[in-house]
Amino acid sequence: MTNPQALWQNPGVKIGLALILFIFIGASIGGIYLTQIIPEQPIQFPHSLHIGLGAQCTFCHSSAPYGPSAGLPSTDKCWGCHQQITKKSEQLDKLTQYALNNESIPWVPVAIQPDHVHFNHQAHLSIGITCETCHGQVSEMIVAEPQKRMNMGWCLGCHKKLSPGQFERLSDCTLCHY
Prior knowledge:
Blueprint: H1 11-36, H2 47-52, H3 57-60, H4 75-82, H5 90-100, H6 121-125, H7 131-135, H8 152-162, H9 167-170
């Protein structure tokens, strides 16, 4: 009579568990990496130039003061200014084609939150938090870049620092997860 072998000692189970662990770690690393790379945009929009000329974030991202999403600029928003500019460039030629063809610019969102997180720009802007607080020094960026620190711990740290007396309310899970 043979001694029964514990399940975890079975080589097939060990290989299966190692494979599951490998897939989980690989997916986690891949997911984090993919949310941190700068996406290729259809037009390389120079944030630094536009902010340097005095454009406010909310001029292009006009939904931010009024709701959860900041919004991305429409072709009409861009074309409203750029149809009056005679300067030529490859990027402005792309904009011209979108405008003449009456097509939306297929912007790729940069600051993407998971589906289970509901961030509201309005709530933050209405109490004086600036866009740079979360999005970094956009005035120094050519194309907007994802910020590596955007996570729950960072948000909670900011809530605790800005409103220590209201931290219990501001750390309620249902505030952002609903």
